[in-house]
From TrEMBL:
Official protein name in the record: Aldo/keto reductase
InterPro entries in the record: Aldo-Keto_reductase, NAD(P)_OxRdtase_dom_sf, NADP_OxRdtase_dom
Keyword Cytoplasm: no
UniProt entry keywords in alphabetical sequence: Oxidoreductase
NADP-dependent oxidoreductase domain sequence ranges: 15-310
Domain of life of the native organism: Bacteria
Pfam families: Aldo_ket_red
C-alpha cells in the first residue's frame, strides 16, 4: 500500500487508519473476536495506525488492542492514544483534564493496559478549559524526552491552539472530523495551518457517523443519535439523505458504494491539501477490505468537481453536534457560515456517545 508521511517527524503511514472506538464503546459493542480479527486484517493489509483512547470503554479498548497484538509483532502497529476525557461510573462524560500531572498519570495506565513501553502518538482528546495548551504539551514533551512517547498529536483544536502547541514541541498530526458532510476545516484555517506547519491530519467521521454509508434509514422507533447529532433529526434527515442520493450516480460510475466514494474523497484530499489520513471506524474484517478498495480509487478533478456540485459545502442540514457539545470544541470557535438546522439544545444530553463512536 502506498504510504504518506504524517507530519515532519517522518512517521510513515497508510492513507487509512483504524479507529477502534466502536469495538468497545458503542450502543451495540462489537463481538470481541470480530474486533480482534479486524485489527489483524488491518495490520496484514498495511494499515498500521490504530487509534484509541484511554476512555474508550474505560480502558477496555486498550486492553482489547493489547490482546490483539499479543500474537503479533508490536512494532507492526503504530498506536495513537487520546487522553483527558473524564468519565463517571455510569459512563457519562464528566469533564476534560489536561494538567501535567494527569498527563503523566494517564500515560502510565495506558502503557500498562497496552503492555508496551511507548506510545507512538499521544494526544489530548480536547482542549482542557483550565489548563494552557503549553502546559499540556510541555508535559508530553517531557515524556518524549524520556522515551515513553514518540510523537505528539492534537484533537479538535483550532488554528491558534495548533500554533501555540507547535511552538512548544513539533506536532505530528491534528485529529479532526472531516468529510463530505463536515468541511469546516477547509474554511476555518485548520487545514491551512496544518499544511503551513507541516502537520498531518487524521480525519475521523469520514462517513458522517453513518449518513454517508448510503444505506442509512432512520429506524421506525427513532434513533437515539438525534439527541446529540442534529443531522439525524427528522427535520434535517430528509435533506441530508437527498444529498447522499446525489452521490449514487458517481459511485455507480466507479463501480463502488457511496461509502467507498466518501472514503475515496477524503483520501484524495490527502493528495491536494497536505497529508490527510482517513480514520476508518471498522468493527468487522470485511469493512477493512471495503475501505482498502476505496483507498485505491482514483478520483479525477472532474469527479471531485461533480461531488462538490452534488454536496456543496454548507448544504448539509444541522451542525455536527448539539449546541452543548459544540461548545466543548476549540475547533468550532469563531465565525461560522449560517446553516439551516434543527437543534434540540438539550442541556442534559450525555457526552458519552460523542467520545464513544466518533472515531
Amino acid at each position: 500500500m502506498r504510504t504518506r508521511t504524517l507530519g515532519t517527524g517522518g512517521l510513515r503511514v497508510a492513507p487509512l487508519a483504524l479507529g477502534c472506538a466502536g469495538m468497545s464503546d458503542h450502543t451495540a459493542p462489537a463481538d470481541e473476536a470480530d474486533a480482534i480479527a479486524t485489527i489483524h486484517a488491518a495490520l496484514a493489509a498495511g494499515v498500521t495506525l490504530l487509534d484509541t483512547a484511554d476512555f474508550y470503554g474505560m480502558g477496555h479498548n486498550e486492553d482489547l488492542i493489547r490482546r490483539a497484538l499479543r500474537d503479533s509483532d508490536r512494532e507492526k502497529a503504530l498506536l495513537s492514544v487520546k487522553f483527558g476525557g473524564l468519565r463517571g461510573p455510569d459512563g457519562d462524560f464528566v469533564g476534560i483534564e489536561g494538567r501535567p500531572a494527569h498527563v503523566k498519570n494517564a500515560l502510565a495506565y495506558s502503557l500498562r493496559r497496552l503492555d508496551t513501553d511507548h506510545i507512538d502518538i499521544y494526544r489530548p482528546s480536547r482542549l482542557a478549559p483550565d489548563t494552557p495548551i503549553e502546559d499540556t504539551i510541555g508535559a508530553i514533551s517531557e515524556l518524549v524526552q524520556a522515551g515513553y512517547v514518540r510523537h505528539i498529536g492534537l484533537s479538535e483544536v483550532g488554528p491558534e491552539t495548533i500554533r501555540r502547541a507547535h511552538a512548544v514541541h513539533p506536532i505530528c498530526d491534528v485529529q479532526i472530523e472531516y468529510s463530505l458532510f463536515s468541511r469546516d476545516p477547509e474554511t476555518n484555517g485548520i487545514l491551512d495551518t496544518c499544511r503551513e506547519l507541516g502537520i498531518g491530519v487524521t480525519a475521523y467521521g469520514v462517513l458522517a457517523h453513518g449518513l454517508l454509508t448510503g444505506t442509512y434509514r432512520q429506524p421506525a422507533g427513532g434513533d437515539p443519535r438525534t439527541h446529540w447529532l442534529p443531522r439525524f433529526h427528522p427535520d434535517n434527515l430528509a435533506t441530508n439523505l437527498t444529498l447522499v442520493d446525489r452521490l449514487r450516480p458517481l459511485a455507480d460510475a466507479h463501480g463502488i458504494s457511496v461509502a467507498q466514494l466518501a472514503t475515496a474523497w477524503v483520501v484524495a484530499r490527502g493528495r491536494e491539501r497536505g497529508t490527510v489520513v482517513a480514520v476508518l471506524g471498522a468493527r468487522r474484517p470485511h469493512r477493512v477490505e471495503e475501505a482498502l478498495a476505496a483507498a485505491e480509487v482514483t478520483l479525477t478533478e472532474a469527479d471531485l468537481g461533480r461531488m462538490d456540485e452534488a454536496v456543496p459545502a454548507g448544504a448539509v442540514a444541522g451542525t455536527r453536534y448539539a449546541a452543548t457539545l459544540m461548545a466543548l470544541l476549540d475547533s468550532e470557535r469563531g465565525p461560522k457560515p449560517n446553516r439551516k438546522f434543527h437543534d434540540t439544545r438539550d442541556s442534559t444530553v450525555s457526552c458519552t456517545s460523542v467520545h464513544g463512536i466518533t472515531r
